Structures are given as structure tokens and as C-alpha cells.
Amino acid sequence: MTNPEAEIRIPRFDAYERVMHWMAALSFFYATLTGLALWSPKLYWMATMLGGGYHIRGSHPWVGIVFAVVMGVMARRWAKGMRLDADDRVWLTRMHKYATHDHAALPPSGRFNAGQKMLFWTQLAATLALFLSGFVLWFPEWMPRSLRLLSIAAHPLAAIGSITSILVHVYMGTAAVPHSMRAMLRGYVLPEWARFHHPKWYKTWRASNDV
Ligand code: HEM
User: Fold this and answer.
1) pLDDT confidence of 81, banded at 50, 70, 90?
2) φ, ψ for residue 69, nearest 5 deg
3) Average pLDDT over residues 35-46
4) Range 10-209: architecture per CATH
5) Ligand 1 centre from 170 Cα, in Å?
6) Mean pLDDT for all residues in the chain
7) What does the pLDDT look like over 179-209, one tens digit per residue?
8) Are 64 and 123 in contact (CB under 8 A)?
9) Which residues are within 8 A (CB) of 123 and not within 5 positions of it... i.e. 6 or more apart?
10) What is the DSSP string of 166-184?
11) Dihedral (CA of 161, 38, 32, 42) sign
């Protein structure tokens, strides 16, 4: 007997969202590796792999701008759907249940769960801090000393926040939540995945597709 559900594909990310996401990922990793190489002499060996110190000193800020612009595009597309609702606020107070796989103890999630939403806002705030402090460090001769000193501290701190949140994100999107990559690579998910991870979103999809 065949399972009719296995034929159903639920669209999750359209081509625009996927291109935007992978552009963010590529520019993020390039800016991170070049930034780390420029930051610490112990990591300077990475500069050799990425084209040499002179080259990465020139490319790092430009790729940083590409990343910030893509994040702006991402915010335009997703910010509305990333607002926390009443269920999300309860979800956050019971986050430990998510970590222990006790999903029944959590309120149902919409298209994104509260953890994904928090990660999105953290990443957006870190990107803004990176962009502003990076601009000051790019043109130090135009900037007052106080702003230069503030940026020297803020830029690596924002980078550490951003890298930490992306490490969590990559772990969640690959190892921790199987089949998530299908959504970001091929654009769709299967009903079982949607019902388990995003029940409210799944319900809305069913209602609007008469399934
Ligand atoms: C190799 C690196 C990355 C991998 C493997 C990855 C993987 C994924 C996957 C599988 C999803 C879909 C999750 C779902 O359907 O619920 C996703 C969504 C998303 N990604 Fe990534 N991603 C990477 C890098 C990044 C970077 C660098 C950013 C931004 C700085 C980013 C921001 C987002 C956002 C905002 C979402 C939607 C909400 C969420 O799922 O957290 N990703 N990513």
C-alpha cells in the first residue's frame, strides 16, 4: 500500500529566499575567515590561504558590506514573520524542553520557532554593530579617537556574538534537525517534518490548500 502523504511537498523557501540565504552564508564565512586572519597574528596563516594579507585587507570590508546588504534584504523579507507571538514567549520560558526533545511540553510553532526568531534578531543586531564599527575602522583618519577606541572593542565583540549564533544555527540546520537542509536546498519539506517542527504553520498550509 502506498502512503499518499509521501507524495506531498510543502513549499518552505522560494528561490529568492534560498539565493538570499546562501549569499548570506558565503559572504559571512568569507568575512569571518578574513576577519579572524586580520585580528590575530596566530590566525594570520589563514590569510595565505585566502590570497595574502594585502588582498584580504582590501576585500574584507567590501565582502562585509555585501553581507550587511544581504542581511538587510533578508530582514525585509523575514522580519514580519520573525515577530514573537504569545506562544513564542511561552516557548522561550520552556526552551530546555526543546533541548531535551520534550516537544509535547512546548506550545506549537509557526513558520519559525521562537529559537529561530531569537537567532534572527541576534544576528541582525550583531550585523548592525559590525557594519557601524567596521565603517569606523575602515576610515580611522576621519573618526574621533573615542569612536575609534569604541569600534576596536565593538567590532570583535559583535563578531564573536555573530559567529557563536551562526555556529548554533549551522548545528541546528544540519545535525540537530534532520531534513532541514532539504528546505534550504530544494525549497520544500514533507508533511511529517512540518507537522512535527512547525505545527501551526502546517495547519495554516493545510487549511489554505484544502488538504
Ligand atoms: C553553512 C552555513 C549555513 C547552513 C548549513 C544553514 C542552514 C539553514 C537551514 C537548513 C535553514 C532552514 C531551517 C528551517 O527550515 O527551519 C536555514 C534558515 C535560516 N538561515 Fe541558515 N544556514 C547557514 C548559514 C546562515 C547564515 C550565515 C545566516 C545569516 C547570517 C543564516 C540565516 C538563516 C536564517 C535567518 C534562517 C531562517 C530562520 C532559521 O531557520 O533560523 N544562515 N539555514
Assistant:
1) very high
2) -65, -45
3) 96
4) Up-down Bundle (1.20)
5) 7
6) 96
7) 999 999 999 999 999 999 999 999 999 999 9
8) no
9) 71, 162, 165, 166, 169
10) HHHHHHIIIIISTTHHHHH
11) negative
Using the atom order of ligand 1, give the atom closest to the CA of residue 29. 27
The rounded Cα 57 to chain-centroid distance in angstroms is 25
**What pTM did the predictor assign?**
0.94
Residues 6+ apart with CB under 8 A from 151: 132, 133, 134, 136, 137, 143
Task: Say how many Å lie between the CA of residue 134 and the centre of ligand 1.
Answer: 24
101-154: per-residue pLDDT in tens?
999 999 999 999 999 999 999 999 999 999 999 999 999 999 999 999 999 999
Tell me how far apart the 2 most distant CA atoms of the chain are, in Å.
73
- What are the residue ranges spanned by the domains of the chain? 10-209
> What is the whole-number distance in angstroms between the Cα of residue 144 and the centre of ligand 1?
37
- pLDDT recorded at residue 2: 64
Residue reference for cell 502512503: 3
Pocket residue to mutate for ligand 1, from 169, 186, 195, 196, most atoms within 8 A of Cβ: 169
User: Looking up cell 540565504, which residue turns up?
Assistant: 21
Residue 210: pLDDT band (50, 70, 90) is: confident
C-alpha cell recorded at residue 208: 489554505
